[in-house]
Design brief:
Strand order of the largest sheet: 9-8-10-12-11
Radius of gyration: 26 Å
Structural class: alpha+beta
Shape: globular
Largest sheet: 5 strands, mixed
Distance between the termini: 40 Å
Strand content: 5-15%
Number of strands: 12
Number of helices: 28
Amino acid sequence: MLISLILLCLIAFGGRALTYLVTDDETFMWRLAVGNIVGSAVFGLASFLLAMGFGLSPATVGVALVITASPLLLLRRQPIAGVFRHDWAKAKGKFQGGNLKRFAGFGYYAFFFVLFWFFFGQAMYTTGQGIFTGGTNNLGDLPFHLGAIYSFTDGANFPPQNPSFAGAKFSYPFIADLLTACYMKLGADVENAMFVQNVSWAFSLVVILERFTVKLTGSKLAGRIAPFLLIFSGGLGFIGFFKDYWAQTKGIWDLIWALPRDYTISDDLRWGNSMITLFITQRSLLLGMPLTIAVLGYLWKVFASEAEVTDINDNPKKVKSDKVSDGQSLSFFPFSLFPFSAFAVGIFAGMLPLIHLHSLAVLFAVTGCLFVFKPAEWRSWLAFGAGVCVIAVPEIIWSATGTATETSKFIGWNFGWDKRDQNVLWFWLTNTGLVIPAIAAGFYLVFTTHFLDEKTGKKAATATDDEAATHRYAITLSLFYIPFVLIFTIANVAKLAPWEWDNIKVLIYWFVGSIPFIAYAVAWAWQSGRAMKIVAGVAFLTLTLSGGLDIWRTVSGQNKIKVFDADAIKVAEQIKEKTPPNALFLNAPTYNSAVVLSGRRSYMRYSGHLASHGIDYGEREDTVKRIYSGGGVADILLRKDDIEYVLVSPEERNSMQAKDEDFMKYPVVAESGQYRVYKVK
C-alpha cells in the first residue's frame, strides 16, 4: 500500500498546483481534493497517450508521472508562490490551538475517511478460498473492472480493445481502470491500488460537494450536511427494515448485525444508495463526479457574477467570477481578451469522455442553458467550450471509430425511468422519500429567508436591508437549477442507455444539483429553534436511514460474495505464464471467467455487460454455444474466428454442456482443479 500512497501524493500535489491557474481564492482542503481528481485525470490521459505509442511499461508510466507532477514548478512562480504560502499558513493555523469547533471539523472529515476506509475495503478482498466482494451489486462489476485492469497490465491491450468482445474498440470510459494498471506497473498490487484510489476519490467528492453547496447557499452548515445526503442517499426502504424486525423474534441489534437484504434497491425500489449501487460498482463515476462538481462550481461562479449574496456571517457582497484570479495569478493573457481560467476549466472537463462520458453530457446541458440565461458572459462560455473541445473532441472521435457499440440502442422513449408497473408519482415518492418535498422547501426558503445567522438562528439583519438583492440572488440560483430539472425530465421520458436503469448515470446529477436546496432546508430548520431542531433531525434521519442501513451491511462485512475461486486464480496465473499477451480465448459468456484475471482477450464474455454497452452479441453467442457443443462444426468455427485457446471449467460444463473429451485432442496448457485450458491453434 505504501507505493500506492506515494503515487497518490505525487499525483494530488501535482494536480493541486493546477488549481492556481483557475482561482486564487479557495481553501487548502478544496485544492487538495480537486488536485487529487484533476491530477488523476491528467495522469491517466498522459499514460494512455504514451502507452498508445510505446506500450504500458514502468518507463512510460514514470514519464506520465513526471508530466503529472510538473505543475509543481508553478509554485515557484510569483504571484502563485505567494498565494500558496498564504494557503499553507492558513491551513497550519487551523491545527494550532484546540477548541470544540476545530475538533468538530476534524471529526467530520475523519468520519468520512474511516467510513470509506472500511467500505471500500469490502470492494475486493482475497482469502485462501478466492476473491470476494462485500458489495451486493458488485458481483458483475468487479470482474469487469479487473478484466480491464489486467488487459492493460498483462494483455498488451494498446490500442485498447474490448477485453470482453475481442476485435472491437474499448469504447467504455476506462481511465479509472487504466490508473489502477499504472499503479501496478510501478509496483502496487491490484487490491491496494483500487482501494487507495477509491478512498481518495470518495473523500475528494465529499470536500468538493461540501464547497459547492456553500458556494450556492452561503451556509456552512448546509455544506456540512450535503455530503451526508449523497453518501447515505435512499428512499423509504427503511420501512421494510422495521417490517423485517416486527416479522421476526430477534432483538433489533441481532437484526442490525444480520440484515437480510438491501433497503434501497429491490424490484420496487430502483433509486438505490449511491455508495452500494454506483460508487463501489462504477469506478468511472467515482472519478468523474467530483471532477464534474468542481467544474459546476466554477460555472456557478461565472453565472452568479455580480449577483448579490449575503454570506451567513458576512455583510452583503458581490459574487464575482474568476476575473480577478486571472489577473493576479496569470500574465499569459489579459482577461478582457481571453478568460484563461474558463479555458483551463474547460480542459479539465474535456478529459471526461474517457473518464465518464455521461458526466460530460451533463456539463453540456448545464453550460448550454447557462449560456442562454446569461449571454453577457459569452467570453467565459466560449473559452470554456473551447477548452472542452481541445481535449474532448479528439477523445470522442477516437472512441466512436471502430467501436461495436450501436448508438441507436442508447436512445428511445421510456416514461417514468425504471418504474415498471408502479404509478410514477408513487414510484418517486417511495424511491426518494423526502427529497422532492425538501427541494421545494429549500426553494421557498431561498426566496424568503436568505440567509440565517448560524449563531442566533434568526434571519440575518443584512438580508432584510436589501430584499431586492436577496430576490435577485434567488432568481439566479433558480435559473442555475433549471438544467438539473431538464436532466430529470429527459431521464424520465427517454431511455439514454440500452438498459433503462442506466439513466441513473445522469439522474444522479439531478440529485447532486438538488442537494444544496435540501441541505439548506435542513440547516434552516436546525437553526430555527428547539422544536424545528426535532423536525430537522427527523428529516435528516428519513433522508439517510435507508442508505445508512445498506452501507452498514457492507461496512460490517455481512456480505461475503465469492467472485473467483482459488482454482480460477491459479489457472489465470498459469495462463499469464504460458500464453502470449494478445491470445484469444473462448470461454462461457459469464462475468467471472478465469480468463478475466489473465488479462487475455475473450471472444465473448458476459452478455449483460455487452448489452448495456450497446453491443450486438447474438452471432457470437450462437458461435460459443455451437463450439462447446462439440462435433465437426466446432473445429471449423474455431479456425474461422481465429480462436487460440479454449477454457473448460465448471461454468462451461454447466451452462454450455461442454465435454472435455471433445477437446482432449488438443494439448492442455494450464490446469487447476476443474479448470483446463486447451490450446486449439
